[in-house]
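User: Could you go from structure to sequence for me? I need the amino acid at each position, not a summary. Structure tokens:
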């Protein structure tokens, strides 16, 4: 019997969706960003914008605003980079999936870490990221935002259906 399934996401859509999922962990109410760094379809690191380990969250103590930006958190890209550093992972030649276009500082850090491709669906305001990425020959791919829902429909999968015994 042929059962119609939802269209499978492309690899780019899949990893972008993972970046969206990572953004759910963000702790700054001004912006929720996620970043997933991938090489050969293998996730090397993930990050979201959040406070330094052990320090208060914007959500709990309010944002720490300097020049109209909240500076309490590390951005998603920096947190993905620091996760890779912590685990001794080489990011050279990898692709970064980010929910929002990098700020200038994050773009420079990503370039220096060897990121070669950036996939993103949302713009950031007022940044030199595109200029730096382009000058450093980092490919920028802009996709439309993947679907916000995760299509996990347990009830539909016959092998997951409850039997009388398993209730
Ligand atoms: Zn904040
Ligand atoms: Zn940034």
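Assistant: Here is the amino acid at each position, in order:
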């Amino acid at each position: 019997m042929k059962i119609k399934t939802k269209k499978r996401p492309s690899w780019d859509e899949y990893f972008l969706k993972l970046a969206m999922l990572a953004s759910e962990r963000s702790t700054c109410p001004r912006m929720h960003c996620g970043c997933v760094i991938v090489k050969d379809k293998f996730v090397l690191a993930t990050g979201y914008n959040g406070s330094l380990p052990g320090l208060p969250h914007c959500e709990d103590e309010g944002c720490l605003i300097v020049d109209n930006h909240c500076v309490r958190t590390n951005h998603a890209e920096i947190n993905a980079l620091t996760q890779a550093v912590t685990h001794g992972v080489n990011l050279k030649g990898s692709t970064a999936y980010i929910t929002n276009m990098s700020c200038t500082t994050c773009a420079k850090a990503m370039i220096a870490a060897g990121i070669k491709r950036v996939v993103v669906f949302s713009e950031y305001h007022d940044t030199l990221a595109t200029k730096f990425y382009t000058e450093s020959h980092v490919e920028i791919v802009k996709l439309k935002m993947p679907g916000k829902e995760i299509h996990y429909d347990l009830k539909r999968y016959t092998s997951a259906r409850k039997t009388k015994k398993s209730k």
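One structural detail worth keeping in mind: The first strand starts at residue 34 and ends at 39.
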